[in-house]
Amino acid sequence: MKQCLLMFAAAAVLFVGAPAYSQYIFLDTNGDGLNSNTSSGLPDDILTSATTSVDVYLVTDKNRDGSAAVCNSAEPFTINQYEFTLHTSGPGQVVFNSWTDNMNFTFGLVLCGDGTMCTGGGDVWVGRGSGTQLPPGKYKLGTLGITVTTSSDPNLNFAVSSTLNPNAQTAFGSNCDGANFDSLIRLGVDFTDSDGTEPGTPVMPTTWGKIKKLYQ
Fold first, then answer.
1. Whole-angstrom Cα distance, residue 9 to residue 3?
2. What 3-state class would DSSP assign to 139?
3. DSSP state of 135
4. Which domain holds residue 170?
5. Closest Cα partner for 69 from 125, 19, 127?
């Protein structure tokens, strides 16, 4: 009986301590405003030598599966700033050329590079902000201009930190307090739903990659 009570108490602590947030940030390489990790029927979001730009999207108030995100402080998931870190992995290399902001945000937030974009070692850190809160919803944050420099196709994925700077992260500013009570909603702290690009190897119906996509 005591063991059961201890297990129940431990479960209750974990439940209370877990933040009730979730958002979705993703990359789009083919211009459809979606990421292929959400459905096996969508065109693959991959990087090839022909890829010259990648769009970055954020859904401030919904999870990957479309369910509503809940703010523990009962505030709306508005947005007045964003920052994200992307890491290159797998074969191939990516050169990050430019960032075009789509939000009309007025100032940079990045503590290296030109203040808006910082690159190095296969990583990029981008951030812009504004004094005006925008309503919750799905936003195209902007477009990252890139060059894939080798014939092998690399992957790009969101990261929660980088060697570029100790402050590099993936997050957005909001009226919602966030887990750290600083009005920043952070990947890896407040939410976990993020999708980068897929491996560049062609996916055929008979391959393991195609099978795996059916269960994502």
1. 10
2. strand
3. P
4. 2-213
5. 19
Please give the tally of structural domains in the chain. Answer: 1
**Length of the chain counted residue by residue:** 216
- CB 59 within 8 Å of CB 68: no
Give the tens place of pLDDT for each residue, 162-200: 999 999 999 999 999 999 999 999 999 999 999 999 986
Tell me 67's DSSP state.
P
Task: Say if strands 123-134 and 184-186 run parallel, antiparallel, or are unpaired.
Answer: unpaired
The number of angstroms, rounded, from the C-alpha of 14 to the middle of its chain's C-alpha atoms is: 25
Q: How far apart are CA 216 and CA 77, in angstroms?
A: 26
Q: Give the Cβ contact number of residue 86 at 10 Å.
A: 26
The residues pairing with 101 across neighbouring beta strands, listed in sequence order, are: 142
Q: Do the Cβ atoms of 135 and 78 come closer than 8 Å?
A: yes
Query: How confident is the model over 108-114, as a mean pLDDT?
Result: 98
Interatomic CA distance for residues 75 and 21, integer angstroms: 11
Nearest CA to 181 out of 19, 26, 48 is that of: 19
Amino acid (1-letter code) at residue 163: T
Task: Give one DSSP letter per residue of 185-213, joined into a string.
Answer: EEBTTTB-EEE-PBPSS---TTSHHHHHH
- The C-alpha R_g of the chain, in whole angstroms, comes to 19
Entry pTM: 0.84
CATH number of the domain within which 8 lies: 2.60.40.680
